[in-house]
Amino acid sequence: MPATPRPPLVHPDASSLSLVAVLHALADPTRLTIVRTLRADPERACGTFPVSVAPSTLSHHFRVLREAGVIRQRDEGNRRWTTLRLADLDARFPGLIDAVLATPPDE
Amino acid sequence: MPATPRPPLVHPDASSLSLVAVLHALADPTRLTIVRTLRADPERACGTFPVSVAPSTLSHHFRVLREAGVIRQRDEGNRRWTTLRLADLDARFPGLIDAVLATPPDE
DNA sequence: CCTTACCTTCGACGACCATCGAAAGAGCCG
DNA sequence: CGGCTCTTTCGATGGTCGTCGAAGGTAAGG
């Protein structure tokens, strides 16, 4: 039995993003840390984020962000690379992600 | 026993608003309708919002918005008037509330 | 004083959420 | 093949959320 390849990641279209879903995805401290980290470093592997939660919990947060359209992920070998969908977000909700990212942490 | 007057409403300072709390307050369809209605009409009584939930549920949503610093409420006679804290929000999170309000409903 | 209007609080209920550990899949390398 | 790394899925758990109805309290007016 041949090994099945990784199932392709699903990402919502840029034009179909839901405001409530995006706001909900951003309304969590851990996910906000992920988004802020991604702004500084455009592409990171999953295991390299400065968050203190279990790997399975981190995977859950990536799924929430991905299904809301906040991040895009692609597989390369053993790693899953993550990027911010900055242009898509700004086209759909102009100024929103900039306003969120302009606020420093711990405030 | 004399009747006790209405307890004063508590509102967080403009400088102490939490980004996560504001995003969470906005990440709900009913509360988003309240905020959008308030943009068109600067001051409304609680019972005059075009939402289809029970009065007790509406009261709950007002509390979430008020404690996050999104709205301000004042009592006058029997009615409770609600306003958007637009200036406070824009001073604390520049562009955020504008970006949210720029997105039309049902999108 | 009694009634009506307005809004809130309380208690309850079902749904969802953030979190974890255990297990497993896919890829890479010796 | 065998082991190691990276990441996900599954099941469970404790907590929070949105919702409602019932009850209550304040205000205004007959």
TrEMBL record, chains A, B:
CDD domains: HTH_ARSR (cd00090)
Keywords tagged on the record: DNA-binding, Transcription, Transcription regulation
Stretches assigned to the HTH arsR-type domain: 11-104
InterPro entries (alphabetical): ArsR-like_HTH (IPR011991), HTH_ArsR_DNA-bd_dom (IPR001845), HTH_MetalResp_TranReg (IPR051081), WH-like_DNA-bd_sf (IPR036388), WH_DNA-bd_sf (IPR036390)
Keyword Transcription regulation recorded: yes
Pfam families (UniProt xref): HTH_20 (PF12840)
PANTHER family in alphabetical order: TRANSCRIPTIONAL REGULATOR, ARSR FAMILY, TRANSCRIPTIONAL REGULATORY PROTEIN
Protein name: ArsR/SmtB family transcription factor
Naturally occurring in which organism (per UniProt): Paractinoplanes rhizophilus
